[in-house]
Amino acid sequence: MRRLLGSVLPALAVVAVLASGCGDEEGGSATDDSTPTSSGSTSTGTPTETPTELPTETPTETSPDAPPLGEVVDVEMVDIMTETAAGGTVSELAVPLGDQAAVDEFTAQFEPPRLPGRVNEAVAGAEVPDGMLLYGAVIAVGCDAPPGLQVVTSEAGLQVTAAKVPSPHVECFAPMTTVAVFLVPASAVA
Description:
- The chain is an alpha+beta fold and about 190 residues long.
- The protein folds into 2 domains: about 1-45, no CATH class; about 70-190, no CATH class.
- It has helices spanning about 1-20, 100-105, 115-125; strands at about 35, 40-45, 70-75, 75-85, 95, 130-140, 150-155, 155-160, 175-185.
- The chain has a 4-stranded antiparallel sheet, covered by helices on one side. A 3-stranded antiparallel sheet has the order 3-7-8, with no helix packed on it.
- The radius of gyration is 27 Å and the shape is globular.
């Protein structure tokens, strides 16, 4: 009798566990929504989407010369450059590149010589018409090079967001740093 219970009892336990773990086909269960992430782990629940539009800030009282907060600024792209393993930190705000000291401070974050040289070349070659100002920003550090950027006015300055990459890479051997040098209307920073 002990031998019979010893072999039947574990089999019944396995059947009970399998039966309780199955959801009905129509209702599903919370674990039915498991999706693999880029790290190979899984997450459960309803997937969330990254918003494709920037949140706009609520305008506050500002000087009459200041642009409205949350307004998208039309930029004129001078150059977008990408270098592998160049270092740097993604900029939330655009950096004015009005003189060589500002350019040197901006490029000090990058590993020499390629990316600092390319930024200096772009700045030196930029024709800045009256009423426009030259700015720069690190728009991405990662596996992808964004095709552009969006600039929005904010209380802190010109807020920069990289354009969405159409086909992002899951992994890469070394991170790439993407820098944008662009012109903005002086009225956007008044």
